[in-house]
Design a protein that fits this description.
3-stranded antiparallel beta sheet; two-stranded antiparallel sheet; 7 helices; 2 domains; 172 residues
């Protein structure tokens, strides 16, 4: 539907062996620009629902809307996104799950997840995202505390410790 509505969104077959689904991507200049080595990287769009992939429910008022440049005559679109804290913690969980997988094709992706966490962490800290914002359920945050500790133990870094602390996670 999005692909038909705007050429900035496009579908790509999954790279997962045997998967019967496609993946939605966004690029402000459309799919053709990817083939021409655009300096802007495409963004994978995940459409998930509470309960999927261990995602908690949260109040609809916590949905964040981002203005996205559609690349055509300055038009933009307001896309709804999950709260940044949820995105960050879900990436940490994905890293942890993939890292522990017994399947090579899944385990290989944990380094990409780690890079994503390292890139998202200072953004969340700069935007003053905290676990005290009452966005996510306490039970989810308690579990996330374990994931964050494991991530930090694997990738100890003074700046990361600072950012995790700003968000509200206490690390030793």
């Amino acid at each position: 539907m999005m692909e038909m509505w705007n050429s900035c969104f496009y579908l790509v077959d999954s790279t997962k062996p045997g998967a019967g689904f496609t993946v939605l991507w966004y690029h402000p200049h459309g799919k053709a620009s990817i083939e021409h080595q655009s300096s802007i990287k495409p963004i994978k769009i995940d459409i998930l629902c509470p309960g999927d992939a261990n995602l908690p429910s949260f109040h609809p008022s916590k949905i964040v809307h981002w203005n996205v440049n559609l690349g055509n005559a300055g038009n933009s679109l307001r896309l709804p996104t999950a709260p940044l804290l949820l995105v960050l913690l879900h990436k940490v969980l994905g890293w942890r799950t993939r890292r522990r997988s017994s399947y090579d094709h899944i385990r290989e992706k944990h380094l990409r997840d780690a890079r994503d966490v390292v890139n998202l962490l200072p953004i969340a800290s700069r935007r003053r995202v905290t676990i005290h914002d009452n966005v996510l359920p306490d039970r989810f945050l308690e579990s996330a505390s374990e994931w964050v500790s494991e991530f930090y133990a694997t990738y100890p870094n003074h700046r990361a410790q600072y950012h995790w602390g700003e968000i509200g996670f206490e690390l030793a």
